[in-house]
Amino acid sequence: MTDDSERPLALDAYESLADGYAEHAPAKPFNADLERPATRSVLPDLDGLDVFDAGCGPGITTEHLVREGANVVAADVSPTMLGHARERVGAGAEFLRLDLGSPLPFTDDAFDLVHASLCFDYVADWDALFAEVARVLRPGGRVVCSMHHPFAEATRLEPENYFETQTFSEEWSGFGDPVDVPFYYRSLGGRIGPMLAAGFRLDELVEARPTERFREKDPEAYERVSREPTFLVVRGVLAG
User: Fold this and answer.
1) How is residue 4 annotated by DSSP?
2) Which contiguous run of DSSP H or E holds residue 132?
3) Does domain 10-150+192-238 fall into CATH 3.40.50.150?
4) pTM over 0.90
5) Residue ranges per domain, the chain?
6) Of 20, 75, 162, 208, which cross-links 176 as Cys (Cβ 3.0–4.6 Å)?
7) In the β-sheet with 71-76, what is the strand arrangement from edge to edge?
8) pLDDT of 134-164, one tens digit each?
9) How far is CA 31 from each of CA 27, 150, 174, rounded to the nearest angstrom?
10) In 122-185, where do the E strands start and end?
């Protein structure tokens, strides 16, 4: 899975970020007061659901899913992130190390919900990814995923071809020492099309807006992100 010739795109970056991310992401406004509230606003009633928490990071949402009564399998490609998740959640969830760019090690119809917070942007082939997500979901199951907003990325990165999926890298300095984080830029159609092609119906689309707590923590950034898009959250329902 982690052979250098097929090494996951952001593995090294997230290994470097993991400790700082685990420390700061629970309260950092872009996470706690922008992305997570938007993503959780479209989650269904979780009690009794079988949930795959893809790209679980340090387990912040894993803990929420468990607390709300879900039966959770959580996974991440970064072993250090998984270590933090296990410390946070303990025996409340099952944890696996896996690469979302590879076939998922689950049987068909294994889950009611796939949750993915800001992790699909590191996967190259979304047609294969959503085909796998559809395979492991039961009929009528849901996928809830947050991602970078394509308008924000196109404006900031100025790709030569808006429609072409391509790799970029940006320096993150909000979790400790600066780290270059590579990711895949893709258009709006490049994000929604693979989900529809895999048999999902687009059920919800939310452009994340900052909370009042964000304003209290960082008034200057609040003024910017309250006017400009940052994250996009989509919920798809699998045809039953």
Assistant:
1) G
2) helix 126-136
3) yes
4) yes
5) 10-150+192-238
6) 20
7) 94-97, 71-76, 50-54, 111-117, 137-148, 231-238, 200-207
8) 999 999 999 999 999 999 999 999 999 999 9
9) 7, 18, 11
10) 137-148, 166-172, 179-185
Report the candidate in 164, 110, 165 with the shortest Cα–Cα distance to residue 132.
110
> Which residues touch 31 (CB under 8 Å, ≥6 apart)?
25, 60
- What is d(CA 126, CA 147) in angstroms, rounded to the nearest whole number? 13
Which candidate, 70, 127, 72, 79, places its Cα nearest to that of 99? 79
Give the separation between CA 177 and CA 200, rounded to whole angstroms.
Answer: 40
CB 93 within 8 A of CB 108: no
Q: What is the Cα–Cα distance from 67 to 171, expressed in whole angstroms?
A: 34
How far are the Cα atoms of 121, 182, 191, 237 from residue 9, in angstroms, in the given order?
10, 7, 18, 28
Question: What distance in Å separates the CA atoms of residue 113 and residue 49, rounded to the nearest whole number?
Answer: 7
Sequence letter at residue 88: R
